[in-house]
Amino acid sequence: xxxxxxxxxxxxxxxxxxxxxxxxxxxxxxxxxxxxxxxxxxxxxxxxxxxxxxxxxxxxxxxxxxxxxxxxxxxxxxxxxxxxxxxxxxxxxxxxxxxxxxxxxxxxxxxxxxxxxxxxxxxxx
Length: 125
What we know:
Elements (H helix, E strand, L loop, with lengths): L3 H4 L19 E2 L6 E2 L10 H5 L12 E2 L6 E2 L4 E5 L2 E4 H7 L9 H20 L1
Antiparallel strand pairs: 1-2, 3-4, 5-6
Organism: Pyrodictium occultum
Protein name: B box-type domain-containing protein
InterPro entries: Znf_FYVE_PHD (IPR011011)
């Protein structure tokens, strides 16, 4: 039986996967350029790019999570509604656009709690 290195079809023999750091690289991700092994390949991109891609278009990397549904979204598939909050176009359509009072008080409070918890854990170290 041939070793994993011999089965590699990338032509990059000796180059290790940039995700796991152990197996030989067999693919190059078209989004980020990482060299990855078969285990870390998602069919059309590396698993890192797949996990961080926009959940709406899938073509671009996410820049944030929708403040309503929590899905990762790119700049083009979302609207920045506050300096720290984005809403995906699908949630925005379900809402019928931005309400008059935007952002809603509940969203602002939830975002402030999230930021406060992160800051507290950083300070406690």
